[in-house]
Amino acid sequence: MTTGTAKDLTETIVVCSLEDLPEGEMRLVEADGRKIGVFHAADGELYAIEDRCSHDDGPLAEGEFDPGACTVECPRHGSLFDLRTGRPKTLPAYVPVETFDATVEDGNVKLEVD
Amino acid sequence: MATPETKIKKLDPKLAEQEALKDIGADYEQKFGFHDPEGEYIYKAPKGLSREVVESISEYKDEPDWMREFRLKALDHFEQRPTPTWGGNLGQIDWNDIHYFVRASEKQSRNWDEVPDDIKKTFDRLGIPEAERDFLAGVGAQYESEVVYHQIREDLEKEGVVFLDMDSGLREYEDIVREHWATVIPPNDNKLAALNSAVWSGGSFVYVPKGAKVEMPLQAYFPINTENMGQFERTLIIAEEGSDVHYIEGCTAPVYSTDSLHSAVVEIVVKPGAKVRYTTIQNWSQNVYNLVTKRAMAQEGATMEWVDCNLGSKLTMKYPSIYLLGPEAHGEILSIAFAGNGQHQDAGGKVIHGAPKTTSSIFAKSISKDGGRGSYRGLLEVAKGATEARSKVVCDALLLDEESRSDTYPTIRIDESDANVGHEASVSKIGEEQLFYLQAHGLSEEEAGKTIVNGFIEPITKELPMEYAVEMNRLIELQMEGSIG
């Protein structure tokens, strides 16, 4: 499903049903030519970040996900990112990655992409 | 017995200086070629790396669970990563033919009298007590994998400055350690950092509280003394806001017939307005692989300085790095590498400008002789948003004969149009005219050569504390002997 106006150009994507994304899991989707990881953390919230580390373009979202700490570790060089803010908590990355709004609507996980 | 401090007060400063300098270079072979008999170890892990070895190290040290998990995870990273194929040749390292942990002494000693005789003898040859009597603020001497002797001046303790070996630091300041641990160099950063993370032992923990200025340099020695024993020290320095500290490490190693591995990790966090200088003089024996990851993070208005002198070893791969992450942070890297016969010094530095108005400089000098190879490998990066950044990179190489080799691999990435970045590189040989000029002034050919080389590295040696500068010049002279004519 795609909505949006010429004004804000926001695209809304249905990722999957909430049942298919239980706590502690991550789902990878493709939108507008880039990959985005949608995470279901232990606090019950959904978080989404671009699947590309700001350090060396590594597949960040596919790294080790810690649902309790709400972090993901880049599998390439080990930078740890806070999923809530997209900010790296450890080097070698030092630039935040892009974050996206993920919500639940009618039992489905939806993602808003600029 | 009187403590070293009380002796300092009684000595005339000039006499003390002469005392400290009298043996430098005079007994080089004994001083740096020591080889104490093996067999006096309390614990020595079997060769090779496995979950059992890692778990036994952690258990032996009675570490908290999170550290054991950290080590095991790092071991997975180490096993999954291929051996790097860039830089030097690491293909000859047999990872399974190394002792990853050896413990020489049962307990930590704070007083020189308590240090076991064998170990004391080794350090006597290194001249540590003399040095300490003169101007050391504290000594943390790493014999094999564990620091056995550690003393810190009482006034530092009163200021809240912590200078411990890393194992004690973890025990006594677990919260501070855990907060900063592996935030600068995560275990998955590279294969060697992963190895260190899995089997680390010893190293220093330095914590300088807000506003504290440490007048005297903190010093530690790291010799390797067991055949085929890796040395994997881990150092963490935290300089709180507005503080100032100078840390010096000296590394020496005895001569052995088979290859040894040294793979350290040094992490430094320089908080706003603080200043840290980290000086290294490394003089490894010629069979040591010296593969070290050193990185510092400098926050707003902070200053980080690496002074790195690399001598000896079979292969050194070391590129001290500085991440300038706050506005107006400043970084400096001074590096000297001397590559002799059969040696490859792959050294350099990295500076990443990640914030506006940050400044940096890298000065690297290499000397190659008798077929040695000196490489400069560096990175200068100015990130998007790091406006008004300024940096200067200078790398000079001196080749002493036709067989030697010098390479330069400078990488510069700039994402801001107003960055001011300068890069200079030169390669030169000792000129006939220079030699002739000095000889015309009464120097022998050999003396003339030494003078030229000492002049070449002088901009960096002048940054060293006096004792180290003298020793550095002496070491260079020894490397130079017989190289001219």
In short:
Chain A is built from no helices and 9 strands. With 114 residues, chain A is mostly beta strands. In chain A, strand 5 and strand 6 (71-73) form a beta hairpin.
Account of the 3D structure:
The complex is a heterodimer of chains A (114) and B (485). With 114 residues, chain A is mostly beta strands. Chain A has one domain (11-107): 3-layer Sandwich (Rieske Iron-sulfur Protein), CATH 2.102.10. Helices cover 0% and strands 41% of the residues of chain A. Chain B has 2 domains: 4-318, no CATH class; 431-485, no CATH class. Chain B has helices at 4-10, 13-21, 28-32, 51-60, 65-80, 117-126, 128-135, 154-158, 166-172, 174-180, 191-199, 432-440, 445-461, 466-480; strands spanning 43-44, 102-103, 138-143, 146-152, 162-165, 204-208, 218-221, 234-239, 244-252, 260-262, 265-270, 275-284, 288-298, 303-312, 315-318, 321-324, 330-339, 344-353, 359-368, 373-382, 390-399, 405-414, 420-429. In chain B, a hairpin with a 2-residue loop joins strand 3 and strand 4 (146-152). The relative contact order of chain B is 0.09. Mean pLDDT of chain B is 81; it is low at 1-11, 16-38, 106-110 and 128-140. Classes of the chains: A mainly beta (114), B alpha/beta (485). At the A-B interface, loops of A face loops of B.
- In the predicted model, the low-confidence regions of chain B spanning at least 5 consecutive residues are 1-11, 16-38, 106-110, 128-140
What profile does the largest beta sheet of chain B have? 11 strands, mixed
Q: Approximately how much beta-strand content do the residues of chain B carry? A: 25-35%
Radius of gyration of chain B from CA coordinates: 22 Å
CATH superfamily of chain A: Rieske [2Fe-2S] iron-sulphur domain
Shape of chain A: globular
Overall pLDDT confidence of chain A? 92
- The CATH architecture of chain A can be given as 3-layer Sandwich
Count of DSSP strands of chain A: 9
Number of domains of chain A: 1
Straight-line distance between termini of chain A: 15 Å
Largest interface: A-B, 14 and 18 residues
- Note the beta-strand portion of chain A: 35-45%
- Fold-level CATH name of chain A: Rieske Iron-sulfur Protein
